[in-house]
Amino acid sequence: MIIVMASEAQEEDIQRVSDKLQEWGYDSHISRGVERTLIGAVGAPEGEKESIAEQLSRFPNVDHVVPILKPYKLVSRESRPETTPVRVGEVEFGGSRIGVIAGPCAVESEEQILEAARAVKEAGACALRGGVYKPRTSPYSFQGLGPEGLKLMVLAREATGLPIVTEVMNTQQIELLADADVLQVGARNMQHYDLLRAVGQTDKPVLLKRGFAATVQDWLRAAEYIAASGNLRIIMCERGMRTFETQTRFTLDLGGMAAARLETHLPIIADPSHAMGDHKLVPQMALAAIAAGADGLIIEVHPHPDQALSDGPQSLTPARFQRLMTDLRAVAKAVGREL
Ligand code: PEP
Ligand code: MN
Predict the structure, then answer these.
(1) Does residue 79 form part of some domain?
(2) Measured in angstroms, how far is the CA atom of residue 119 from the centroid of ligand 2?
(3) Whole-number pLDDT of residue 184
(4) What is the CATH number of the domain that holds 19?
(5) Buried-most residue among 45, 173, 180, 301 (CB within 10 A)?
């Protein structure tokens, strides 16, 4: 980090900072300019940097402290210039192939999940989604089938060969979801730090949704929690944030997604279903996300959206999903990728 002294700083202020740095184990390099003095500090333990920087910024006549490395070191592009691909079944998210995860919001019955799985497989999806633990805004809404639902997901995997993606809401559920191929951490749990650490201790890929009131920086630091616990198989997912706009369910932040791409080497996908909340608006934004550089998509597809127990209005029918996949192939090709 670099400590920028205020222009009024006296020799004793500079010395105070320099002495303190040495006490903390840093090497300090003082560079005296005409206007200001800068103190470069190198070589202290990683974990304490943020609190040390904060303390130093309150020292007399310290103007500000500039960190040199990002606070999300492991997931930052600085630490790895190339995208780190995350394999799910036959697709490597972050490679040249665009992966599309599709399926219903929630597993509702054997018939429903098998029908959905077969349809999305036929259309070219690379994985099946289906919630068995559902984080619903109202406690009176359908909460998911739990372990029974997971058994049905496993059945659907056996029937189609598609890997299964399902949401984990708390640390106890990790064990119950041992059969899942990908653990999804939902928008409402993006800052559930115990959960982030716990999924970081598994060897499963983690789909990390961006919280709907989280900045890109918050999202990157959430990913860092998972990485710091030992798991770098993280797929980031932009799913829309809350803004003043009420015409769509959320506001899909493709700008934030593009900005995050510059900051992290992790693959990033988009979820146009939850962002738009209306199946009529999902295809356009799915195409836009791929044009904007997304590595993949997660899309809600239900065999009978009008009967869905959750998120019916935003769910595509199998026929609509099939058409979207055809259009996606063209856009993927235009941006030098394939589906
Ligand atoms: C979901 O994927 O069904 C879901 C609840 O998503 P989110 O966490 O983005 O709201
Ligand atoms: Mn949903």
Answers:
(1) no
(2) 18
(3) 98
(4) 3.30.70.1140
(5) 301
